[in-house]
Design a protein that fits this description.
This protein is 71% helix and 0% strand. With 188 residues, it is mainly alpha-helical.
Protein backbone atom coordinates (compact mmCIF):
# COMPACT_ATOMS: atom_id res chain seq x y z
CA UNK A 1 0.00 0.00 0.00
CA UNK A 2 2.79 2.45 0.85
CA UNK A 3 4.46 1.74 -2.48
CA UNK A 4 1.23 2.49 -4.35
CA UNK A 5 0.77 5.69 -2.37
CA UNK A 6 4.33 6.79 -3.11
CA UNK A 7 3.93 6.05 -6.82
CA UNK A 8 0.61 7.88 -6.95
CA UNK A 9 2.05 10.89 -5.12
CA UNK A 10 5.05 11.07 -7.43
CA UNK A 11 2.93 10.72 -10.57
CA UNK A 12 0.79 13.66 -9.42
CA UNK A 13 3.69 15.90 -8.38
CA UNK A 14 2.77 15.85 -4.68
CA UNK A 15 6.36 15.95 -3.33
CA UNK A 16 7.18 19.00 -5.45
CA UNK A 17 3.95 20.70 -4.40
CA UNK A 18 4.72 20.09 -0.73
CA UNK A 19 8.17 21.64 -1.17
CA UNK A 20 6.85 24.67 -3.07
CA UNK A 21 3.75 25.22 -0.88
CA UNK A 22 5.41 26.85 2.16
CA UNK A 23 7.56 29.05 -0.07
CA UNK A 24 4.58 30.31 -2.09
CA UNK A 25 2.45 30.90 1.01
CA UNK A 26 5.28 32.71 2.80
CA UNK A 27 6.03 34.92 -0.21
CA UNK A 28 2.31 35.71 -0.60
CA UNK A 29 2.06 36.59 3.08
CA UNK A 30 5.23 38.66 2.90
CA UNK A 31 3.86 40.64 -0.04
CA UNK A 32 0.35 41.05 1.35
CA UNK A 33 0.60 41.17 5.15
CA UNK A 34 0.63 44.94 5.53
CA UNK A 35 -2.27 45.19 6.23
CA UNK A 36 -3.50 41.62 6.56
CA UNK A 37 -7.06 41.94 5.30
CA UNK A 38 -9.74 39.51 4.15
CA UNK A 39 -8.55 40.16 0.60
CA UNK A 40 -4.93 39.26 1.36
CA UNK A 41 -5.82 36.23 3.50
CA UNK A 42 -8.15 34.94 0.80
CA UNK A 43 -5.56 35.53 -1.93
CA UNK A 44 -2.97 33.64 0.11
CA UNK A 45 -5.42 30.74 0.47
CA UNK A 46 -5.97 30.83 -3.28
CA UNK A 47 -2.21 30.65 -3.89
CA UNK A 48 -1.98 27.63 -1.59
CA UNK A 49 -4.83 25.89 -3.41
CA UNK A 50 -3.23 26.54 -6.79
CA UNK A 51 -0.04 24.87 -5.62
CA UNK A 52 -1.67 21.74 -4.20
CA UNK A 53 -4.07 21.16 -7.10
CA UNK A 54 -1.41 21.10 -9.81
CA UNK A 55 -1.38 17.30 -10.09
CA UNK A 56 -5.06 16.48 -10.48
CA UNK A 57 -4.28 14.27 -13.49
CA UNK A 58 -1.55 11.77 -14.17
CA UNK A 59 0.99 12.00 -16.94
CA UNK A 60 -0.68 9.31 -19.03
CA UNK A 61 -4.50 9.15 -19.07
CA UNK A 62 -4.40 5.88 -21.03
CA UNK A 63 -2.34 4.24 -18.31
CA UNK A 64 -4.64 5.55 -15.60
CA UNK A 65 -7.74 4.21 -17.32
CA UNK A 66 -6.23 0.79 -17.96
CA UNK A 67 -5.19 -0.02 -14.38
CA UNK A 68 -7.29 -1.93 -11.88
CA UNK A 69 -7.06 0.77 -9.24
CA UNK A 70 -10.12 2.12 -7.42
CA UNK A 71 -9.60 5.63 -8.82
CA UNK A 72 -12.60 7.28 -7.13
CA UNK A 73 -11.11 6.53 -3.70
CA UNK A 74 -7.67 7.76 -4.74
CA UNK A 75 -9.09 10.95 -6.27
CA UNK A 76 -11.25 11.58 -3.20
CA UNK A 77 -8.23 11.17 -0.94
CA UNK A 78 -6.13 13.39 -3.17
CA UNK A 79 -8.48 16.38 -3.01
CA UNK A 80 -9.31 16.04 0.66
CA UNK A 81 -5.68 15.53 1.60
CA UNK A 82 -4.63 18.49 -0.57
CA UNK A 83 -6.93 20.79 1.39
CA UNK A 84 -5.21 20.06 4.69
CA UNK A 85 -1.66 21.32 3.97
CA UNK A 86 -3.06 24.26 2.01
CA UNK A 87 -5.16 25.46 4.95
CA UNK A 88 -2.55 24.63 7.59
CA UNK A 89 0.19 26.52 5.74
CA UNK A 90 -1.93 29.68 5.59
CA UNK A 91 -2.97 29.33 9.23
CA UNK A 92 0.66 28.97 10.28
CA UNK A 93 2.12 31.77 8.18
CA UNK A 94 -0.46 34.31 9.30
CA UNK A 95 0.69 33.77 12.88
CA UNK A 96 3.82 35.72 11.93
CA UNK A 97 1.71 38.87 11.71
CA UNK A 98 -0.27 40.92 14.16
CA UNK A 99 -3.83 40.18 13.04
CA UNK A 100 -4.46 36.57 12.04
CA UNK A 101 -7.84 35.66 10.60
CA UNK A 102 -10.07 33.04 12.18
CA UNK A 103 -9.36 29.46 11.26
CA UNK A 104 -12.96 29.24 10.04
CA UNK A 105 -12.22 31.91 7.39
CA UNK A 106 -9.10 30.16 6.08
CA UNK A 107 -10.62 26.67 6.15
CA UNK A 108 -13.80 27.89 4.43
CA UNK A 109 -11.85 29.62 1.65
CA UNK A 110 -9.49 26.70 1.15
CA UNK A 111 -12.30 24.14 1.06
CA UNK A 112 -14.41 26.14 -1.37
CA UNK A 113 -11.48 26.77 -3.70
CA UNK A 114 -10.42 23.11 -3.60
CA UNK A 115 -13.99 22.22 -4.59
CA UNK A 116 -13.91 24.72 -7.45
CA UNK A 117 -10.63 23.23 -8.68
CA UNK A 118 -12.17 19.74 -8.57
CA UNK A 119 -15.21 20.93 -10.53
CA UNK A 120 -13.03 22.66 -13.13
CA UNK A 121 -10.82 19.58 -13.52
CA UNK A 122 -13.90 17.43 -14.04
CA UNK A 123 -15.58 19.76 -16.52
CA UNK A 124 -12.64 21.27 -18.43
CA UNK A 125 -9.65 19.05 -17.63
CA UNK A 126 -6.97 19.07 -14.95
CA UNK A 127 -4.83 21.68 -16.65
CA UNK A 128 -7.76 24.11 -16.32
CA UNK A 129 -8.38 23.31 -12.64
CA UNK A 130 -6.90 26.65 -11.48
CA UNK A 131 -9.26 28.63 -13.71
CA UNK A 132 -12.42 28.32 -11.60
CA UNK A 133 -10.94 29.35 -8.23
CA UNK A 134 -9.00 32.21 -9.81
CA UNK A 135 -12.00 33.53 -11.73
CA UNK A 136 -14.38 33.28 -8.78
CA UNK A 137 -11.84 34.98 -6.52
CA UNK A 138 -11.32 37.75 -9.08
CA UNK A 139 -15.06 38.35 -9.35
CA UNK A 140 -15.38 38.37 -5.56
CA UNK A 141 -12.54 40.88 -5.30
CA UNK A 142 -14.12 43.22 -7.87
CA UNK A 143 -17.77 43.02 -6.84
CA UNK A 144 -18.67 45.30 -3.96
CA UNK A 145 -19.94 43.34 -0.97
CA UNK A 146 -23.68 43.37 -0.65
CA UNK A 147 -26.39 42.15 1.65
CA UNK A 148 -28.38 40.40 -1.07
CA UNK A 149 -28.25 36.61 -1.31
CA UNK A 150 -26.68 36.58 -4.81
CA UNK A 151 -24.13 39.16 -3.71
CA UNK A 152 -23.13 37.14 -0.66
CA UNK A 153 -22.86 33.99 -2.78
CA UNK A 154 -20.72 35.77 -5.38
CA UNK A 155 -18.38 37.22 -2.77
CA UNK A 156 -18.14 34.23 -0.42
CA UNK A 157 -14.30 34.11 -0.44
CA UNK A 158 -14.19 37.55 1.18
CA UNK A 159 -17.25 37.33 3.39
CA UNK A 160 -17.13 37.11 7.16
CA UNK A 161 -16.55 33.61 8.56
CA UNK A 162 -19.71 33.72 10.64
CA UNK A 163 -21.98 34.34 7.64
CA UNK A 164 -24.04 31.20 7.01
CA UNK A 165 -24.47 31.94 3.29
CA UNK A 166 -20.73 32.20 2.61
CA UNK A 167 -20.03 29.10 4.65
CA UNK A 168 -22.76 27.10 2.93
CA UNK A 169 -21.57 28.29 -0.50
CA UNK A 170 -18.04 27.11 0.21
CA UNK A 171 -19.33 23.84 1.67
CA UNK A 172 -21.53 23.11 -1.33
CA UNK A 173 -18.65 23.90 -3.71
CA UNK A 174 -16.33 21.63 -1.73
CA UNK A 175 -18.75 18.70 -1.64
CA UNK A 176 -19.74 19.12 -5.31
CA UNK A 177 -16.12 19.44 -6.44
CA UNK A 178 -14.87 16.48 -4.44
CA UNK A 179 -17.84 14.33 -5.50
CA UNK A 180 -17.52 15.22 -9.20
CA UNK A 181 -13.75 14.81 -9.31
CA UNK A 182 -13.88 11.56 -7.32
CA UNK A 183 -16.51 10.05 -9.56
CA UNK A 184 -15.30 11.24 -12.95
CA UNK A 185 -11.71 12.41 -12.58
CA UNK A 186 -10.14 15.02 -14.79
CA UNK A 187 -11.63 15.41 -18.23
CA UNK A 188 -9.38 14.18 -21.01
Amino acid sequence: MMRQLALYARSRGVPAALVVLPVVVFVAWLALHTPWTALSASLTSLAAVLVVTVGLAGQDPELDSSTAVPWPLWRFGHLVAAAVPAAVSVLLVQQLGQEPFDAAFVVRDTAGMIGLAGLAATVAGARFAPAAPVLWWAVAAMVPPGDSLPGRIATWPLGPPDDAVTTWTAGVLFVAGVAAYSARGGRR
